[in-house]
Every structure is written in structure tokens, then in C-alpha cells.
Amino acid sequence: MNGLILVGGRSTRMGTDKSQLAYRHQPQWRYLYELLTPYCQSVFLSCRKDQEESFEGFPRLTDTREIGPLGGLLTAFAHAPHEAWLTVACDMPFIDEETIDLLVKNRQPAQRATAFLNPETRRPEPLLAIWEPESYELIRAQFQQNNFSPLHLMQKGDVHLLPCPRPRWLQNINTPEEWATAVAK
């Protein structure tokens, strides 16, 4: 299994690159890289072409489609189509070792993906998930239909959903106000 840290978003509401925000005295992307490394064979940063210099010296998979997380998944599977991908969005600052450990220990490789069920929305969280190689064809088919939502993929079924014991894990931070609140806690 490989790790994929989704850092390629435009961060328009935040006004600055969310992957570079510090929550634990280091940029979030670096924290996630170190967090995933013990669980994964390799860890990659899924970024845009204009971000590559920000991650110099770290393994990157550059998504040229710029269609959001689905583009990152497509790029990852094109790189290693027969391996699972543990994906983590860079704007989820409350993910910790317990989060990843629970996800990995409950992985169901016979299903398309393993993900947490958000108790607040009652939807799966596709940006903190393990995507199995069997999902690659479905991801490509959805892309060809101009549907770029990883959530829609998960809602098609054959996904192992875990109850999320800490809804805060699934919280994403999108604005300067949300960031200020998150770092104050």
C-alpha cells in the first residue's frame, strides 16, 4: 500500500496554500508525510505542476488534470495500478496516529475502498480512505463521464465503512477563521 497526500487544491477560500499551514509546529503536508510513512511502502505528495518546488526532495505525483482529488487518484493509480492507495487530504488537521491505525487495521482489500462514515453527514469520507486497485477502473470510467466526485464513487457501493469514533478527524479547514480556531484548540 502506498500513501497519497492530497496537496494540489487551489485553497481559494483560505487565501494561502493549505498544505503549508502549520498545526504541529511544521507544515501539515510534512506532518502527514511522517504520519503515513510507517504504514506505507512509499508516500507521495499529489500536487499541481506549479507546486512542485514547494516539495523539493520529496516523492511527488504531479496531477496535470487539475480536477481535484479525483485527478490525484487517477495519477496515483496510473503510477502504480496494482497497489492500494491510502489517501489523506492536507486540510484535515486532526488526523493522528490513532486515525490511520484504525483505518489500516480495518482495511478490507476485497472491497473497492475502506473509509470512515461521517456521523454528522452520514456519508463516507473519500479523502481519508484506502482505495484498492479494483477501484481504478471505476475511477477512470467516472472521469470519462466528466464526474469528478470521489464521494459519488463511494456512494456506488462496495465500500467498507467504519464508524468514526472522533468526528473531529474528518473536519477540514478551509478559511482563515477555521484555521485560527483549529490552532487555538
UniProtKB/TrEMBL annotation:
SUPFAM superfamilies: Nucleotide-diphospho-sugar transferases
All copies of domain MobA-like NTP transferase, residue ranges: 3-141
Subcellular location as annotated: Cytoplasm
One GO BP: Mo-molybdopterin cofactor biosynthetic process
Main location: cytoplasm
GO molecular function, one term: molybdenum cofactor guanylyltransferase activity
Catalytic activity: Mo-molybdopterin + GTP + H(+) = Mo-molybdopterin guanine dinucleotide + diphosphate
Cofactor: Mg(2+)
Annotated residues for binding of Mg(2+): 91
Binding, GTP: 6-8, 18, 63, 91
A cellular component annotation (GO) from this entry: cytoplasm
Top-level taxon in the UniProt lineage: Bacteria
The entry's keywords: Cytoplasm, GTP-binding, Magnesium, Metal-binding, Molybdenum cofactor biosynthesis, Nucleotide-binding, Transferase
EC number: 2.7.7.77
InterPro entries: MobA-like_NTP_Trfase (IPR025877), Molybde_CF_guanTrfase (IPR013482), Nucleotide-diphossugar_trans (IPR029044)
Protein's job: Transfers a GMP moiety from GTP to Mo-molybdopterin (Mo-MPT) cofactor (Moco or molybdenum cofactor) to form Mo-molybdopterin guanine dinucleotide (Mo-MGD) cofactor.
Family annotation (PANTHER family): MOLYBDENUM COFACTOR GUANYLYLTRANSFERASE (PTHR19136)
Similarity remark: Belongs to the MobA family.
Domain comment, as recorded: The N-terminal domain determines nucleotide recognition and specific binding, while the C-terminal domain determines the specific binding to the target protein.
Name by which UniProt lists this protein: Probable molybdenum cofactor guanylyltransferase
UniProt organism field: Runella slithyformis (strain ATCC 29530 / DSM 19594 / LMG 11500 / NCIMB 11436 / LSU 4)
Name of the encoding gene: mobA
